[in-house]
Amino acid sequence: MRACFLRMFTVLAIASLFLTACATPAATTAPAVTQPPAAGATQPAASGGQPVELTFWYWAESDAPGADKWMAETVQAYQKVKPNVKVTVVAQSTDTLISAFQSAVTAGSGPDIASQWATGPVLGFVWQNALVPVSDYVPKSEMDNWLNLNENTYNGKVWGVPMYLIGIGVMYNKDLFQKAGVTPPSGDRWTWDEFMAACEKIKIAGITPFAVGDKDGYHGAWFFANVGIQGLDSTEDLRQAVIGKASFKDEKYTGWYKNLDEMVKKGYFNSDVMSLTLDQGERVFWDGKAAMAWGTDGMIKQAITTLGEDKVGLMRPPKLGSGKLADAGNATQSISFLITKWSKHPQEAADFLAFLHTPDRLSAWYKFTGVVAADKRFDTSAVTSPNLKKMLQWETTGPQVWLENYLPGQVDSDADLPAGQMIFSQSGSPTDAADLWNRTAESWRTQHPDELKNWEGWQQK
Amino acid sequence: MSDTTRPTPLRLPGRPVELSTRRGGGWPLLLLKQVILLLFSLLAIYPIYYMVITAFKTQENWLHNQFGLPIPFTMQNINQALDQGRLLVWLRNSVVVTVSAIFLSTLVSTLAAYAIARMRFPGRGAYLNAMIILMVIPPAVIILPLFVLMVQIDLVNTQPGLILIYIGMLIPFSVYLLVSFFRGLPVELFDAAAIDGCSNFGILWRIVVPLSSPAFVTLIVVNALWVWNELLIALVFLQSEELKTLMPGLTLFRGHFQVNEPLIMAGTLIATLPMIILYLFGQRFFIEGLVAGAVK
Amino acid sequence: MANLTRRLEPYLYLTPASLFLLLVFVYPIVQIVRTSLLVTNAEGGKTLGLGNYSLVAKDPVFWQAAANNGKLLFAVPIMTLLALFIALLLFERVRGWKIYRSVLFLPYIIAVPVVATTFVYLLGLNGILNTLLRLAGLGFLAKDWLGSAVWVIPSIGAVIVYREFGFGLVLFLARLMSLDKEILEAAEIDGANWWQTHWFVTLPQMSAVIEFFIVVELITMLSWVFAYVYTMTGGGPGFASTIMEFYIWKHAFAFRSPGIASALAVILLASTTLLIVLQLRLRRQPLEQV
After folding, report:
1. What are phi and psi of B27, to 5 degrees?
2. Which residues on adjacent β-strands are paired with residue A294?
3. CB C234 to CB A217 under 8 A?
4. Which of A37, A451, B143, B248 has the most CB within a 10 Å radius?
5. What are the residue ranges in chain A where pLDDT is below 50?
6. pTM of this structure
7. Which of C42, C127, C144 sits opposite A449 (nearest CB)?
């Protein structure tokens, strides 16, 4: 009995030590998306024979489904161009995108290339001295082809590489409009009154006017970025409130919550708003159960797939405010690719990022994702759908501002998102929402005086 | 040693159980009891049942009919979950982490518990008291400094790093349980062995350990459940998808496939199957092992 | 010489465990206390002070998180009574009691994220629960369980009860089965009815294990519910289901506020330590006598 016990014990001991040793220790050795290169292929003479390993923390799939497959193909293609460079792509999850990278920054080690949302988040890391400027490693002639560079330009340097452009419009279901007796806007957009009147008509016809899923809070933030923006003249206005020189309780910042509240009270949204996440909310529209919904390029594409191109219409967000930004577009690169300070191969990293913008890669991007690439050289004739053509035009004409980018992460996460949820779940009034903004901004200011200083010094146009 | 600290002998699984000899109190009451119990059992089982039937439905089917059985039955979700998700990788990671943490923590705790239970030294009482306090410290309290430390010694985002943390967290409870058990062993055994010239370690190895299998069973069951289910620490420390254990992996899986509820249910079903199978076969260990140490 | 080795021997046995404990508990606790006392100034430097604590005290979300944890405490008496009740039922030789016990314990085995994910679907506005209520004509009871600021914490509490109940059940049943049968029989002979027997005879004998369960669960409500909230609601709607662990996690990893996170952690630590010390005092059992 004792011998048997002893034997079992030893076996267990060896087994678990073996298992522990087997446990992969390093983060960079596990490829998530890369495929092994074609064996035996004759490699063209490549520059710099020393093997280089790059780790790329990559995020794009949520915005542009198909992006992961595109990246896998891209890495394979790059192997042929630069066989000595091995790129390991690690897909990031949306919920932990910022915190994971923040952890890496605190650690002083991590990926060579990271993905973060443009402007505010990127600058946050610039100020933490975690990045090197892309413009130090990429020739200006190349960068001149990239779109929306202003989103990541600071102190005369460019800190992030754009990949695509995402804008948001309001999709509508032509059949349901007809059923409710609603005529689409003659121009690009409705006035707010027209919008409300249409919603009422649609509701009377027994159809859900506008589909939203705010369980995760993002749709509320979209309202902020598309409706809330309209009270402002420039992003500088927002900055003033963020740094405490203006109050969020001011009409121009939060007055629009009253209109959102009105919409909720009048029943213009699906009843299960708070049970559905963003994608699930969009699904209500894709399934033809609601007359309107917010739509990114990718979502419009999905609607076209489920409902048919001729059944889907597109309009710009209804006009509520009279600030200058009310007429601005809302396209943003969304995600930017950054080169980290601790990377041992910044030049190789930059080269890889520039490779993403070669014509072959750009058209492949569109083929995989249907989302417009942020490059002048992108062949726009590839966009065939009339709806998406319309989006493309809006995204590349005139000033573009995605307002969420101009908030500190904490304020976005603890004011923008919860405020929307408060209104949708009717657990707070518009005044409560405005209060929340003010309080959160103040909390952020007192908790991070160093960040505040950076924001104060950041003049925007 | 006072009587209040001596535990009642553990019931070994398999011994006949004694129930009350009271009659149910007549048929109607008996029926009522059965109905209540049946109701509760159905409530307990329903979520799992729901998970199973949803996993085998197509998405359209589920959208129209959340209640019904999966007809038509489809394996596509299971297949997709196995292909696209990294469920099997995460499962393996969980197994590795759990087995390693359990084994090493038990080893280390046995040594410490033996010393506390059977040797006299200053600070003995204080050490045991410390175990009691440490048992209840929540992970949320220690994650941040641990994270920074792990980063400094370059063990962050590694499985060994995570295992180290788990071992530490398992020790207080393990020591506490083992001390209680060791103290319940008859003193004569030790005296006899000492007379025979057995060293302390010899006593531990040859006598105490073999006799303590009930306690070890409890320990393994409780600790394995804890490590397997742990989310917060694993979430923070393992960032690479390849390294994740099952629980944070499931969260990631859910985020990716939000609009495909049957697929998500398929993923959770696969994730939970090992535990359910273990439970079906080893119920006695789970149930009786769990309480043996706690019932005093 | 031999004497010295014998004196040192216990410490040798304690060393491996102590090393781990130093690493995993002592060092972090020292660190959070230290970090909580360092306040960031405008230049990014740190000064010593209680500033973080005052920031926490001024933060309404902190109070909401603490209140949410407090509200969850109410789940404990519910799950205790439920577990007791069912344990008593099973105890009285109901047919198939073993099966019932296995089934009712099953939820405890299933991991929290799995249970939580399933309940997200069950508790949706158009989920199973509400559909059933509507079918039964009780449509007015169909709330947005996880999406309403009022119902979200009770709903999470209900899911926690669903799972933890099994643990209590098994615990109480085991204790019941080890009770002295003669006393119960004597009570029955004396003519005591169900309530009287259990109230005066059974329950007092179970007081230790009931108390153990209550304390374990109280501490759970304070510090081991992160997985439920993270999986089911992400703290929303608004902050209606934010709890202490979640808030600490947010500040530590999303907002880059180690000072605030540490202050919050210290507060949480103090609360749980207080609870356990209280319990040990109440038991009037001294922390182990030597």
Report:
1. -60, -50
2. A170
3. yes
4. B248
5. 1-10, 20-47
6. 0.83
7. C42
Contact A421 C44 (CB under 8 A): no
Q: C198 and C124, same structural domain?
A: yes
B207 to chain A, minimum CA–CA distance in Å? 9
For chain C, the domain total comes to 2
Q: What is the largest CA-CA distance in chain B?
A: 76
Residues 100-159 of B with CB under 8 A from C: 105, 107-109, 111-112, 114-116, 119-121, 124-125, 127-130, 132-149
Q: How far is Cα A361 from Cα A219, in angstroms, rounded to an integer?
A: 31
Q: How far is CA B5 from CA B117, B179, C138, C176, C273, in A?
A: 12, 10, 53, 20, 22
pLDDT at A48: 56
Query: Do residues C37 and C160 both lie within one domain?
Result: no
Q: How confident is the model over B106-131, as pLDDT tens digits?
A: 999 999 998 898 888 888 888 988 89
| Structure confidence at residue A459 (pLDDT) | 77
Number of structural domains, chain B?
A: 1
Matching residue, tokens 């995760």: A216
Question: Is C19 inside any structural domain?
Answer: no
Q: Cα-atom radius of gyration of chain A, to the nearest Å?
A: 24
**C-alpha angle B10-B14-B20 in degrees, rounded to nearest 5:** 80
CB of B24 less than 8 A from some CB of A = no
Q: What is the pLDDT of residue B15?
A: 34
Same domain, C81 and C190: yes
C254 and C203 in a single domain? The answer is: no
Whether B51 is in a domain gets the answer: no
pLDDT-derived band at C2 (thresholds 50, 70, 90) equals: low
- In a domain? residue B121: yes
Tell me if C112 and B231 make a contact (CB, 8 A cut-off): yes
Residue A461 is predicted with a pLDDT of 55
Residues C124 and C192 in one domain: yes
If one looks up domain A52-159+334-373 in CATH, what number appears?
3.40.190.10
Q: Is C45 within a domain?
A: yes
**Residue C1 CB partners (closer than 8 Å, separation 6+):** none
Diameter over CA atoms, chain C: 84
CATH number at residue C143: 1.10.3720.10
pLDDT attached to residue A33: 36
Residue A158: name the closest of A124, A128, A132 by CA: A132
Note whether C228 and C258 are same-domain residues. no
N residues, chain A: 461
Q: Report the top-level CATH class of A168-331+401-456.
A: alpha beta
- Where are the alpha helices (H) located in A30-181, listed in sequence order? 67-81, 97-107, 120-127, 140-143, 174-180
Residue C4 domain flag: no
Domain housing C163: 70-234
Name residue A52's beta-bridge partners.
A85
Mean pLDDT of B148-173: 86
* ipTM of the modeled complex: 0.83
Percent of chain C with pLDDT over 70: 96
**What angle do the packed helices B124-135 and B87-118 form, to 10 degrees?**
150
Of B164, B261, B272, the CB nearest to C114: B272
Asked if C128 and C93 sit in the same domain, the reply is: yes
CA distance A294 to A290: 11
Average pLDDT over residues B230-252: 84
pLDDT of amino acid A3 = 44
| Exposure string for C230-256, b = 16+ CB within 10 A, e = fewer | bbbbbbbbbbbbbbbbbbbbbbbbbbb
Q: Are A268 and A223 in contact (CB under 8 A)?
A: no
Clarify whether residues C225 and C90 are in a common domain.
Answer: yes
Domain that holds residue B188: 80-292
- pLDDT at residue A98, as a whole number: 81
Nearest-by-CA chain B residue for C234: B251
Asked, for residue C63, whether it belongs to a domain, the answer is no
Tokens of A326: 């009310």
| CATH (domain of B227) | 1.10.3720.10
> Could you tell me which residue, A87 or C1, shows the higher pLDDT?
A87
